[in-house]
# Entry
Amino acid sequence: EHEWWNTIGQLREGSQQELVVKKNFGRDGQNTLAHIAQRHGLYFNAYNKGKTLVFSKVPLPDYRADLDERHGSSQNEIKMSNETERRVENLLSRAQSNNNASASTSTVSMRQSLPSTSTAVAESTTYVDKQKLSFQLRDMQRSKKMMPSARSMQSFREKLPAFKAREEFLKAVAANQVLVISGETGCGKTTQLPQFILEEEIDNLRGADCSIICTQPRRISAISVAARVGSERGEELGETVGYQIRLESKRSTQTRLLFCTTGVLLRKLVQEPDLVGVSHLLVDEIHERGMNEDFLIIILRDLLPRRPDLRLVLMSATINAELFSKYFGDAPIMHIPVL
# Structure
């Protein structure tokens, strides 16, 4: 019985990010496993109608293309003998009986448990520093919004079709690892969608951990879009919004939204294959099928299983939206119409 539980404990202590168990223990068993994950300071989620269970050190999305039974999984999977499976099932049954007798554990959710506070206490210094930065970014954002120029820009933004889809978009990003956005030119997806994510993260005091990259197919568009977004936020270019192209960049330690060319991101992937520290990645004009763009899409699909916390948004013209959705395991499509 200790074999399986020790494996979960090793996940917390070791360098491995997650463990995948392909075994259906039923709804009650999943509830019990969610409780175990919580006690270990881990996240837990069930996929494929409960047939694939995942323990992870990072938050898990509702859907994982790499765990879809139609695509197969390359994750580290727990192999259990028949005898071990029988012991685990017996242990789950006993644990469930204990849970039913205790009201404090009867409401454990099967969807996703939160880690215990001991994890945050262990890194209290870093946590305090991040909280301080998050408050600074939020206060700065609020003060910038009160400026007359920002208010004028805000009235313009509210007239864009993309602005009307703001709440729906943010909910879709939070619920899905991959999201495909389709919209005609002029709907505002290029300037507004990255800005929505930035505002949401900063307003909710997640600014310190927020790092958004938005790719553009051309250097001039990376610069001009960054300048426009910075202007809408009432900032100088290089504050929370910046850009990076070949041999030139405008950014600072405060920069949380970076516009760059596809080539710059590919070079970053060579140096950092897992894009550690990047929280959101938006690929704009993905329907422009160049060699760099196609190569980037291939790399990103391989990257997502290793970074389940990364959110990927693909922005395309309406003609190719379904193509990219199917490539990423039938990722949801959100359409922004031009009014």
Q: What stands out?
A: The CA atoms of residues 247 and 264 lie 10 Å apart. Residues 71-80, 102-123 have pLDDT under 50 and may be disordered.
